[in-house]
What we know:
Helix content: 25-40%
Number of domains: 1
Structural class: alpha+beta
Radius of gyration: 16 Å
Largest sheet: 5 strands, antiparallel
Oligomer: single chain
Amino acid sequence: MAKAQEPRQIIDIPELNNEQGAAQMELSTRKYSNGQIVSAAHIHYAKDGMMVFELYGDFSKTMLRIKGRATQKTLDAQQAQAFTPESIAALRVEVLAFYASKRKREALAA
Length: 110
């Protein structure tokens, strides 16, 4: 039996591109050894074949967490449930607001 592939989708967020690279929102559903299946969104920057992100500093959000057997059907169904076109649009708005607030805080601290 083939190992289930963890679904993943990348969405470009060009408004956030900077010297770190091209901003991308990764939407993924992963299986963990504790039996959890977790769908989450996070931002990273892609540049020269590398991905860069700031741990605890870049946007990250868990969308759905369940316990279960991580079959391909389960992973794909959870990915589809967690990341509908409406939830992706809402995440995009949340991401842009997150970074606008982060820039404001950094400007005030400078």
